[in-house]
Amino acid sequence: MKRCGSPILERALALAACVAAAAALGSCGGGSTGSDLNSGVNKTYLSVDATDADGDALQYQWRVTSGTIDNKNASETVWTMPDGPGLHFAYVAISDGKGGWTEQQYAVSSDALGTTAPIRTPVTNVAPAVVDVDGSMARLRFSSADATLFAPPADGAAQARIVYLPGIQVQVVAQGTGTTVFAGRTDLAGEVDLPKLPTNAGYNIMCSTQGDAPLVLCGTLTGASQASVHAVVPALTSARNLRLFGHVALADGGVCGHENAFFGILSAASVQLRQTDGTAIGSAATVNRFGDYEIDAAVPVQATLQAEIQCEGYDETLDVPASSNPTGYVSSAPVELSHVIPNSRPQIVNMVANGPDGNVRGRMIVPLVGSASVAQPGADHFLIYKGQDTKLSACIYYRALGAVEDCDAQGNMIGPISFDDWKANNGFGTSADVSATFINQRDLNLVRRMVATRSSSGTIAFYVCNGPGPDGTTQAEVDELIANSVDGLNMVACVAMEWTPTTGANGGQPFTKFFTFGPDGSLLLSINLDTRGEKYMPGSCVACHGGLTYNGRFPEQASGASPYLGSRFLPFDTGNYVFSSNSSLTESAQTEALYQLNQLVRATEPSDSTPTSQLIQGWYASSHVLDKAYLPPAWVAADANPATAGAATFYSNVVGISCRTCHVSLDVKYDWNSIILSPVRAGTQFCGGTADVALNASMPNALISNDRLSEHLNADATLAALVTQFLGCSAPLPDPVYPKR
User: Fold this and answer.
1) With CB atoms 3.0 to 4.6 Å apart as the test, which of 141, 173, 405, 437 could cross-link to 415 if both were Cys?
2) pLDDT classification of 281: cutoffs 50, 70, 90
3) Would the pTM count as exceeding 0.90?
């Protein structure tokens, strides 16, 4: 009997059903609870046991990736599994009504249920007309101009933290015409995502410093040729003489409230400045994603003030401290008011799923104790460096590709294509197909069954069907999981990519497009690639595949958005793969197929001088066998330079196994051949510890890469010293005063 396997990223999480669970599924039969609604082999009964140290009444929300679930406010519910095989995920979000939240995931395989995936009627859609411009979608990040020095709750020197400003008004106005091209408010990270702006045009950035403050000129912007994040620091006048800032957190260190696009949850604390008689001064400031806030206001210099802190059912009014300046509140002397809410988040005790006969199905997903990623517990740490999409933006992206007929206001798909439709459209099933099967153990730790083809017109398409990767490192486990995947067991999702043109986009030239399909062939808006929950398309792909014109979110507009993201295919870096010992699936047996796959990737590149093209050419300089010891010329030269001795080892053992695959697709400025001697750039993203909390330790941006690099460095002191030499540290430094939660 084949076991159910491990989860998507089992190196960091314990998931998947074991042999006993598979046997239980096989014995479920028809099962009955006496109710038509709750009876049948496809019914799974979920229950979660959670506790709250503060004795608060708990509230529940439920979501699933496939099938349907009774989303009731209760600790137990019924999940109607989808027809057909596959590995599916259920999620519960639990709140205590006072800003404390926790989530839990659970995975169940439907392989042994014996149900048949639905037969879908072929669908053909026509992509809407594209209104494209030569430019990029930039992201603006707004932060306070003040020197916000946070005093540690215990003893120690105050440390600087940049305070990002959520909820402020932003307008982007075209210079010359005065036309407003964007209007909105910043999110909990203090950011706004702009639509694609023409390259050769200038814009004024107008913003408020508080939600109801007047708009002022906060900076200028030129339509960038490359998507990027632009830091905006609003200028503040001395007339707004009070600068009140601080950190609001729960007693367990977590941020009050919750943010989850898959659930549609957006909750945060707020701080309202008041006179002593209760009269509000201005609007309430929203506490940002990291627990920080700032208020600027015009008040009497010797005023006596209060601040009301609210978070869901919690409400407390505090006295505002006096200024450190003897004359009173002046803009040059910011005042800190931090507060600990006497509440802790609920804790999960257990979660379990049962079939109609009472046998356990599947397992809950829990972090692996001791892994580096445990220090980053939030769902929104990994795979979001380039941005985060929503259900609506994902659907509109698909509509721009012609993958759905339309989207409703909530982002639900109307008339989506199926996986069979997509494969037929791209000509799969001929002698032109090239395939390989392996596990990408250092990236996502998935079994990957890869197939690619090139049509007679020259367009290129790939798809990869993913299954759980191994917990450990034994060849027996690798063989078993690959065999399971080849047999179609425990399929999580199939990610499809095509290099085809869309009229009106990218000058009519082919470009890279992304699609995700469930085990039953249905089109999916989101995918869980890092065991940190569902993340929406296309941002979940752009995180690694890059996006020269994308930064933040695909535009949530009615029509006309170009689906061109400026993304690329990834090369097949076999040094990071493990293979089956089955004679037809060994690395040597698939050498030519992997060569052909890399040549197809190279064929999608705009030239032979791009980082991806140069890497592939270097790998295959002398044969069709990939040279795993290949060292780019820049690194050969660096290794020969006494000032950068050890560069070859650093490249081979760090860059090559943890960074290279994604970085070559992002842009020349992110390719490691270009940043070989740039520890300053790596300082924030890898080492962290700076005032820029948003970027601290944001790399590696994949959970498995993060954990495996950490394990590698912990086990090799010599390599750790070399990483410190090139990057400035061998492990991320703590955030100033308060950790990200």
Assistant:
1) 405
2) very high
3) yes
